Amino acid sequence: MALLSVRDVTRRFGGIVAIDDVSLDVQPGQIVGLIGPNGAGKTTLFNVITRLYRPDSGRLDFEGKSLLRTPPHRIVRRGIARTFQNVELFRTMTVLDNVLVGAHSRTRPFRGGAARGHVQEVLDYVGIAGVAHRPVAGLPFGTLKRVELARALVAEPKLLLLDEPAGGLNHEEVSELGAFIRKLREDFDLTVLLVEHHMGLVMGIAERIHVLDFGRKIAEGSPDEVQRNPAVIEAYLGADASAA
Amino acid sequence: MRPKQVAFGLGVLVLVVLPFVLSDFRTVQLATVGAYFIAILGLDVLTGHSGQISLGHGAFMAVGGYTTAILMANHGVRDLVTIPIAAAVAGGIGLVAGVPALRLSGLYLALATFGIAVVLPTILKKFDHFTGGSTGITLFGKPTQTGHGVGVWGLTNNQWLYVLTWTIGCALFLFAWWLLDSRFGRSLRAVRDSELAAAASGVNRAKYKVLAFGVSAAFAGVAGALFAINVAYTSPDTFPITLSLYLLVGAVVGFFGSIWGAALGALLIQFLPDIVGLIPHVDPKQGGPTTFFFGLVLVVLMLALPLVLRVASRVANRGYLGAR
After folding, report:
1. In this complex, which of B187, B189, B203 lies closest to A92 when CB atoms are compared?
2. Least buried of A76, A213, B56, B281, by fewest C-beta within 10 Å?
3. Nearest to A155 by CA among A69, A74, A224
4. Angle at B33 between CA B277 and CA B178, to 5 degrees
């Protein structure tokens, strides 16, 4: 059974169809890539899966049960955590407090400290223990992305949604990131769905790739299959031959 | 010991020593400061940490004050017993007010809450059989007044009021400190900083915003109850619109909504008008404090505070915004 199953999901904003009848499955333990040109609806799909947006039609199942009756703040308890495209942190708070909020669904009221042990381990793992007591404001972008990742990890998700994890990283960091995401999957027993523009990264780590264009799914398959798919080449190369 | 624990210890020490060195008149003034202190603590929870501005906290104080007054005067409930009831009634109304507040933010919320403060005196006057109308309710000499006339534990009446108010004030400070340090406080700040990320982390935005309103109003209710007990009287004019404004000013001056500045804000509300009143009026024919200088001092404080705090926070190498 698929861990996450998106069936015929459509989401409109006014007259614009941001996601048009999209279906996709994510199998447990896989790293799945979601790619497509700007405005293809990738982030919108993330927002639908995490219930920030309600789909106009379609089904959304996680572990065989619908997500549509789960309010946004209960999604993480169901086992789905995410990062955001442009980093969405609690800007007045310290690194430690940011990550502690991530453990919200794993702690009881007034006992936030109970998660501190686990949080410390994750801070070490992600490599930000040294800045734990610094306010996040003013830290470099790469560090902020790690904070966000740590915040998602302490929620102990089954499915991790990464929205452009390579954004803002240099070439060397991107190749490290690929290995890191694979290690994450092993160490945290995760399934990963990632939106990414960096083709080298996606093709290198994803076992399965879904391609969106103008809100429609135009292809799915292994990295090799997708790279050879004429519709994908058309979508990426269409006007600008250097994009692929 | 950590710096904050030292600061709290020193604060308590000062509070213990003050009544021995100050006159009876100053002591009872400081009891009133204690009531402001508690109301500002509540406003710190709401505005400082949950990011919801209230310009109507005088109204929640009024709810607390009238709860105490009506229970003491008409139902024979002893003053001390009325305090938790006032907290519960004001807190309940705060929770109810918090629900529509979910739809408002920033300036709009400030104006809506200000509306509550504006309307309240009229409501109090309208239901005069219940509230005593414009005349208000006198509590002086009521048998439900603890130690009225004779004093308590060998303290004068004014000293007793001081001890009562500041004991509750310190207890509530510790409560607020603990609350804001817990998962609850962190969740409030998370929702304030990013509703998106808070939701993705499992924090129920609506629940925490409404709870912040309830907790904050309950603090204001205690403050109002103590205010009524201190002056032994309530009327619509005891809780004027300006009280709501001063409370917010006090909270902001008190390190931008940190509970560690609440005492400073409370002292300001009580004594700034007096200090400014020492400056002679521009027009000698007019009496009373000069509102011009009062406003001027506030403007200067607002301009100077961020600078002072930025320097202080650089020294401490910690952020002050959203500080506990």
Report:
1. B189
2. B281
3. A74
4. 140
| B67-70, long-range: CB < 8 A, 24+ apart | B67/B221, B67/B224, B67/B225, B68/B224, B68/B225, B68/B228, B68/B229, B68/B234, B69/B132, B69/B136, B69/B137, B69/B139, B69/B228, B69/B233, B69/B234, B70/B130, B70/B131, B70/B137
Q: pTM surpassing 0.90? A: no
Residues from chain B that touch A92, judged by Cβ atoms under 8 A, are 189, 192-193, 319, 321-322
Task: Report domain extents, chain B.
Answer: 3-241
My answer on whether A165 and A118 are in the same domain is: no
Q: Which of B183, B190, B318 sits opposite A111 (nearest CB)?
A: B183
> Nearest Cα to B241, choosing from B75, B43, B5, B61?
B61
> Each residue of B184-216: pLDDT tens digit?
999 999 999 999 999 999 999 999 999 999 999
| Same domain for A134 and A188 | no
Which candidate in B188, B194, B196, B201 is best for mutational testing of the A interface (most A CBs within 10 A)?
Answer: B201
CB–CB contact B319 A135 (8 Å) = yes
Enclosing domain of residue A106: 88-156
Q: Are residues A172 and A51 in the same domain?
A: yes
Cβ neighbours of A107 in B, within 8 Å = 183
Per residue in B110-150, pLDDT (tens digit) is: 899 999 999 998 999 999 888 888 888 998 888 888 866 56
- Which candidate, B163, B165, B166, B141, places its Cα nearest to that of B154? B163
Q: Do A61 and A117 share a structural domain?
A: no
Q: Is there a contact between A76 and B204 if contact means CB atoms under 8 Å apart?
A: no
> Phi and psi dihedrals of A181, rounded to 5?
-65, -40
B197 vs A88: CB contact, 8 Å cut-off? yes
